[in-house]
Amino acid sequence: MNKLKDKKKGSANPEYPPKKEKKEVHTKRNSNSSNINNSNSCSNNNVGNNSSGNAFVKTSKNGTAGEGDNIINKIKELNLVLLQNKDIIDSLRQENESFSSQIANFVKKCKELQCICIEKEKDIAKLKHNEKYLVQEITKRKKEKDELEGKINKLEQEGTSKSAHISQVEFEKDNLIKELHERDKQINALHGNIKQLEGQITLVRNENAKNKQDVTNNLKKQDEINEHINSKDNKITALEEKTQKLNKVIKDKIEENENCKKKIQQQSAKIAHLNDKIQILQKEQKNNEEKIKKYIDNIKMLKKNNQKMDERNMESQLEEQRKELEQVIFNSQVYKLSKKMGTRKKSTNSSNVCKGAKGANEGETKQMLSPNKRSHKNPPNSDSSSSSSCGGSSDGEIVSFSKKYNLSKNMSKDRGDTTGKKKK
After folding, report:
1. Dist. CA 361–CA 74, nearest whole Å
2. Are 96 and 8 in contact (CB under 8 A)?
3. pTM for the model
4. Per-residue pLDDT tens for 377-389?
5. Which of 43, 144, 287, 422 could tie 89 with a disulfide, CB 3.0–4.6 Å?
6. Can you give the residue range of the structural domain that contains 116?
7. Distance of alpha carbon 173 from its chain centroid, rounded?
8. DSSP 3-state assignment of 383?
């Protein structure tokens, strides 16, 4: 940038060399002609050569005629070379100015892009922070889910263990019921035996009543019968004791059955309560899964909205940059036109001084130039162009610039429309 600025300053304020003697003019003219053929960007030296050539023409009038003709021919050749290389010099100046404007625009764009990058980095940092927070919440939810699954598994294991215990209790209950049936059968058999014994006792008593008359005669028989009765009584008492014991056992078994029924009811109530808890936990798990899905959907929507906002910002920035480029191009063209007008005014003032030396060169230079160059281009060192011709050429350049500006504007609009259609 600093080098380009130095070049601009050098081109805007050229330092013209002072007039020298004849020998120095010859050597300098030859060196300048070689520099013109080798490089097309030394416009200030060429202008210096013109002034030195004109000075040499004035001094050479006092010399010999042969040397004057040679010098005039050389001056004509140099003027032709200058006129041939003038277009290239002007184009190089314009390219230099366009490059400097493009570099300034590029620097502005870089600064704008840096600002945009900083803002985007801030947005990305915020999004990363939000993403970390959401990831932490998801991990918490996963941990809660794992804990709930562990609890559910424990409850299922407890339910299976309880069901096994219930099956064992039912099996024991069936065994006890079978034992009760067997005991009932035994009790019924004992009741039958008791009835038989009671019948026998009645028979024995009848026999004793019948044999009371023969007591005296049958003492021995009576003793035997008493012994038999005593034995039978002992048997009866033993059977009665057995019946009492069996009744107690039956009562105990009935109480145990009632207790087992109560335990079964309590366990069934616990199982129902555990089933209710399991259903509640399943509902909570479903709600947590729905919440996690909602969080994921919200994250996706945020990402889509951010992408849309980025696209809109890029479109708006491109439109602003396009407008700024158009404005800069317009300002640069206006600046060039004003600069050209200023250089033409300066050239008219300098041409009044050098009319005598350049009058002879006008015919030959006009014959060498094409008609397009005559109509569109006016060299700063030619004296034939008047103020009216300068005004006409400047108006023509203004019209051509306006046409170019309108064409570039239409092209940029067409490009914007095509890019918008592609995005849609």
Report:
1. 12
2. yes
3. 0.23
4. 343 344 434 444 4
5. 43
6. 73-164
7. 69
8. coil
